[in-house]
Design goal:
Largest sheet: 4 strands, antiparallel
Mean pLDDT: 75
Distance between the termini: 38 Å
Number of domains: 1
Structural class: alpha+beta
Strand content: 25-35%
Order of helices and strands: HEHEEHHE
Number of strands: 4
């Protein structure tokens, strides 16, 4: 029997871990921002999301060391935008909500990381 299998099978009763070492590799952020993108048509919004996804996949497949993280963070309905304006949160946070309420808006996180 393999010593690792014996240790795991005994649920740790045959050994004591006295030290451990962990190493993690995290990508370092180069740029990241949020954008509120209004759409007059839901089909256009879905096409935009599809394009973001395709661009992220293409960047990942290129193995250039860059990882695209552009993605929709949330979907905002006209009521969401109205609440934002009513509470004054748009002005307080520098968000420019459209004056005319679009059928849909996406809050998009735009960013790129370099894998280390």
């Amino acid at each position: 029997m393999d010593p690792i299998d014996l240790f795991i099978g005994s649920e740790g009763t045959l050994g004591v871990v006295t030290a451990g070492h962990a190493r993690a590799s995290c990508p370092s952020a180069q740029a990241q921002c949020l954008a509120l993108v209004p759409f007059t048509d839901r089909k256009d919004a879905l096409a935009f999301v599809r394009r973001l996804r395709d661009e992220a996949i293409a960047t990942r497949r290129s193995r250039s060391g860059r990882v695209s993280t552009s993605r929709p963070s949330s979907t905002w309905t006209p009521r969401c935008l109205a609440l934002l304006r009513e509470d004054g949160l748009d002005r307080a946070n520098g968000v420019h909500a459209p004056a005319r309420e679009p059928p849909i808006a996406l809050l998009v996180t735009l960013g790129a990381f370099t894998a280390t």
